[in-house]
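Title: Comparing notes on inverse folding

I've been comparing how different people in this forum approach sequence design from structure. To keep things fair, I'm posting one structure and asking everyone to reply with a full sequence. Here's the target:
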């Protein structure tokens, strides 16, 4: 370990660099940051030699129930519809409680070792399977309490909310203290033209959430079709209904292809409605604009710069990991940030964008991710001394502190999942 952190109730971290580039010394007492002082203040302690000290990460949009099925369920053509079809088949064949729990827990172990302290995961919520999926989530939320704070969101096509099924899903989410979510497409279809009857279904979903005091977290306009423009409808609906809960929307890939006047109006509505946006740059770059034998012509990401400039809270997150939607990833939010910076030009300057994997998503989860006096010493320490170093080389030797104590950052071995590749355990 490059930084020998003492297992003591009281110590200083000296000569640190914070995410905004400031030099600092931090005093940690009984797991809390009790002093944040200018560099050179501490009379003694661990010398980080200019290494960066970051708050632990928050991953506000992922799919832990889908994770790590790629070896047994690859996407045949790498497309969005290919991913949907592959996952549907795998869920029907293999998603027992044991199968989901083993893969879900593997993802949590990776996230924890990399320095993530809070996760919001979407759960495929198709009846009757949904009851088992939410029960698995509830068990793991309790098991991981104090290490990773977990929230869950339902996900299924919006047309599944019509009638009794929608009420049962909403009741299930409410019983588990979850967030109501859906995708703005119909079953078996992609994100294209706005479906017939969409406004009535959307109002029905809002009513289900309102009656139960639920927030909303939606998969929106995840395509390169300019006809996929449900986001302004969602914002207008929230404003008309004076919706009191939080709304977060993910993806909104098609926004970047709209006409300029439509973009400006959509962003205005999103800001006015208080909607948060989360972008999933790695997964969207993988799926969007894909055609056999052709080089992609766009990156599939939404207008992060324009949204942030308008005052819309913007996060980036991991989304899928080693499943048909994205066959790569390791639940590492530092990797997500590094790739987001490269893909979306989140630099010049890069420093303010670190909030997109820390303070902004943490606030969406009702939490805090900051380095201040009085905050928990949940920290990620990097040997890198500035962002140009941290984002150039994989930070495999990072040190993670939780409540001021070093945790084991050994990643779980993929071999542990070998028994799941051919199906559920007997």
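Reply #1:
Here's my take.
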């Amino acid at each position: 370990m490059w930084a020998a952190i003492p297992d003591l109730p009281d110590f200083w971290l000296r000569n640190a660099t914070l995410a905004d580039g400031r030099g600092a010394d931090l005093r940690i007492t009984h797991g809390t940051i009790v002093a944040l002082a200018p560099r050179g203040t501490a009379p003694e302690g661990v010398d980080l030699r200019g290494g960066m000290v970051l708050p632990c990460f928050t991953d506000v949009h992922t799919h832990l129930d889908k994770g790590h099925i790629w070896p047994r369920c690859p996407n045949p053509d790498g497309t969005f519809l290919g991913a949907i079809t592959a996952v549907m088949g795998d869920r029907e064949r293999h998603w027992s409680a044991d199968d989901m729990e083993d893969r879900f827990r593997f993802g949590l172990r990776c996230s924890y070792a990399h320095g993530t302290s809070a996760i919001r995961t979407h759960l495929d919520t198709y009846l009757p399977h949904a009851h088992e999926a939410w029960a698995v989530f509830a068990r793991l939320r309790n098991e991981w309490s104090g290490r990773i704070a977990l929230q869950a969101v339902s996900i299924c096509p919006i047309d599944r909310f019509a009638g009794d099924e929608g009420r049962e899903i909403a009741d299930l989410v409410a019983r588990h203290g979850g967030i109501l979510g859906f995708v703005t497409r119909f079953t078996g279809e992609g994100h294209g033209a706005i479906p017939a009857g969409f406004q009535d279904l959307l109002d029905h979903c809002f009513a289900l959430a309102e009656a139960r005091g639920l927030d909303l977290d939606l998969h929106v306009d995840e395509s390169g079709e300019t006809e996929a423009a449900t986001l302004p409808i969602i914002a207008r609906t929230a404003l008309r209904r004076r919706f009191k809960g939080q709304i977060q929307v993910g993806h909104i890939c098609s926004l970047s292809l709209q006409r300029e006047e439509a973009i400006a109006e959509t962003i205005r509505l999103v800001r006015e409605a208080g909607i948060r946006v989360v972008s999933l740059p790695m997964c969207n770059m993988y799926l969007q604009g894909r055609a056999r034998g052709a080089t992609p012509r766009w990156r599939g990401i939404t207008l992060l710069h324009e949204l942030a400039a308008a005052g819309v809270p913007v996060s980036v997150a991991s989304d899928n990991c080693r499943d048909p939607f994205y066959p790569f990833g390791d639940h590492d939010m530092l990797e997500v940030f590094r790739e987001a910076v490269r893909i979306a030009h989140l630099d010049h300057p890069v420093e303010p964008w670190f909030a997109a994997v820390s303070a902004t998503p943490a606030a969406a989860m009702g939490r805090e991710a900051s380095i201040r006096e009085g905050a928990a010493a949940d920290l990620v320490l990097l040997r890198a001394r500035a962002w140009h170093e941290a984002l150039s080389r994989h930070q495999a030797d990072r040190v993670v502190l939780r409540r001021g104590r070093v945790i084991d950052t050994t990643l779980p071995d993929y071999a542990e999942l070998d028994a799941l590749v051919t199906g559920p355990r007997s």
